[in-house]
Every structure is written in C-alpha cells, then in structure tokens.
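Open question from group meeting: does this chain pack into something compact, or does most of it stay loose? Before anyone orders reagents, we agreed to write out a predicted structure and look at it together. Recording both the input and the output here so the notebook holds the full record.
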Amino acid sequence: MLVGKLLYIRGGYLDDSLSFNEHGMLTGHSPQGSYTLSGVAIERIHLTKHKVELEGQRYGLHFLGALPTDDPTTAMDRVLITPKKKILRITIDREVLVTPKKVKEKPVKGAPAVAAKQAPAGAVPSTQATQATPATPATQPNEPSEADQAKAEIAAAPPAERPAGPASVTATTSPAHAAALLKDALDHIFSVGFDDRMMAAMPDFWKLYYQAVAAKSDYRPANPAVLRQSAVDSKARLVSVFEPPSNEFAQSHGVAGLALYHVVIGADGKPGEIAVARPIGFGLDENAVDSIRKASFQAAIKDGKPVPVLLDLIVEFHIYSGLTAGSSKAAPAVKPTSAILPGPYSVPHS
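Structure tokens returned:
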C-alpha cells in the first residue's frame, strides 16, 4: 500500500518524527505547512503487535514555471528535503487484539429445578423451601475486561514496541476489525497522489489553479463583472511595500525564481479572489498569497468610477547568503530585466 508510491501527509505536518493513534490522529504537536512540503517516500516498514513504524524521506515539490495549460506533473521536481543522516519516522498505534472471553452456558428456561433438601419428618413445609429457585449462570468476578487485557498486553510488551498513546488505545477480539482500523488510519494519514479529499483540503488559490489545470485553460474570475486591465481608463496598481518571505526549506535547497498570481482587485482597492497562475512550490506560494492579502492597492477607474479588475502579479524569490530570519524581499509586481531560474538550474540570463 505504501512503499514505492507518491504519498502526501494529510495535514501538512512538518516534523520528521510523527506519531499517530490507531485512528490516524496526530498525538502531540507538529508545525503544519504547504502540501508542497509534504511529499513522502516510505522506504522501510516495521510491523509489531502494537504499532507500525515507517521510515522514509520527505520531499518538496518545486514547480518549473508550469502554467495551468501545462501538465504540472511533468513540469515539477521532487526535491529531497530530509537533512543528511536524518530519517522521516512515522509511528501508528494499532488496536490491541485480545483473546475473546469464554461464554458460560446459561441453563435452559423451564428445566427441572434442583430438588430441595428433604425436610425432617413432621416438619411444616416452608413455602420458601419448596419453591423452585431459578438457576443462575456461573460468573467469573475476577475475569479481566477487554480494556484490562489490553493494558496488560501493552505493559508486557518491550518499551520499544509499546504504542505512542497507550492510554487511548482501544481493544478488540476481531482481527478483521483491527486490520480495517489500521487501513482507515493509513488512509487518514496519507494521500496517494492528489485524491479528492486532499484537493478539497487545499486553500482556494490552489483549488483555482488545479481547476484550471483540469480544464486546460487559464483562470477566469467567478464574477463576470471583473474587467481586464486593458479595458479600464486607469489601471489598478500596488501602492504598498511588498515583501513575501522565503523559508528555510527554499533557502537550504536553492529554490528561487519567479511566480505569477492572478488577483481580483475590487472597486474598494482590496484584493479579493486570488489564483496561482505559475507556481513555484516549496511553501513559497502560500507566503506570496499571504503577502498579497496584506498589501494595499489603488483601484482601477473606468468612466470616472472605481471598478473591479483582474491584476497579474509577478513575485520574485531570491536566495540570500547569511540569511538569519528566513525571509526574503520580493521584487515589485513588475517583471525585472534579469531573473534567477529556480534552484540547481540557476544561471544568470538576460
């Protein structure tokens, strides 16, 4: 199910040591990030009685200038981002399988009752003594419950094989139920490729990009009243400082270059719907969109009135030596005279 397949960690958890309970819910805390930093390749699987241990590597998605009309799977690199001599470790608790309790046979209703002890001669018969007393099934007051058996099983296991969240582990007597629960947990943690649930969890700016990819066309605003810049008398423009940050993954792996975003600027000058047009990946698109939402714009004017328009913004990310704060200063929303191509492909050009 896992080895050799393109997987993504749902939820975008960024730690390289992750633990999940038997329902696929994260135990503890982990920072979360873009799905473009959540690609994983599982290389080894160790299955024990109480948990599944997975080892592998984490990958970042680096887009190579792909437009929605291009196939993003062929215009994208998977870049290893797990540090050298490090391993991505994921543990998943398993439901504890316990031995079913033995069921005692209950007496058949209506069967003859056990004869009462014979009374001495001449004694007055007692109603209580002669009345048939229904038999009760034998009980085992000291028989442990499934929960108690599960606790004993976990306590008896070597420390390295105990589940990460022993207090919350459930128990079952059905091997089929335990196997189905593990399969559901794996599906809750991992996505094989871009499935519908993963797409549904993406931010809107990525959804709009992949909708355009599926249609093999460029993005079009949902509101038909949004005009193009060429159709107005005075164009919308950026009027504030624009500094989308880089991040440690991009800086460490040489990911830089240009990205393009479609932004609907309303009649009030505020950014509305945003769509990725030419992504870069590595979590940088999220940074760019966040900065766009915080930026200030001057509204477009047509016939003396402010109108909504579609504005294309080009964002440039750089590699900085001696970076200390993990941030970068983006270029203005104008294409520069020279650019830096992403990562290992970087060469100066004009």
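Observations to bring back to the group:
Confidence is low (pLDDT under 50) at residues 122-133, 323-350.
The longest helix spans residues 175-189.
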